[in-house]
Amino acid sequence: MARFGSSANLGTATGLATDPQYVMKDGFSLSFRMTINSWRFMGHEIGYSYNHTSLDRPPTANGPGIGQPLNPATTDSVPMHQGFYDFLVYATPEGTKIRPFAAGGVQFSSFVPPGTSVSYGNQVTKYGINYGGGIKVRLNDIWGIRFDARFYNMGKPFNLAGQTGRLIQQQYSAGLSFNL
Question: Domains (ranges, CATH) in the chain?
Fold first, then answer.
């Protein structure tokens, strides 16, 4: 699950603070992570995440002057692709059945504007940091389960007028792990 919380306001069409905001909406996330445990209590993780989110566009005036008709509010799909690296620190040594961990690292987040495709190179890429933690549970020699909570801090996309602050994405996930 991908959530944006109170940082989801991306700005306005005109830059006036009183105008309605463009808002990034929550969505689902599909992530793949590969961990390399280099030491007993530390490791590295690289990964990719696809986030299916959307953007609420406020109604806008069709022309100048009072009484002009409005373009209606819309919700547009905004896929987001992320690549990340995290350094992991574990609370228990390699080989134990239950391993709580903390993670911190860097990422890029590539937002695909409404009406375009990532294959045309129109995406807006923002860089940031991420942090979080979770727990890994080994079920047998090969299979395990994991639960993660991650927070991604990045610049806001699309350079809209009146844009302030940073976009904070919260990602909560559960998944299977394959151990070699």
Answer: 2-178 (2.40.160.20)
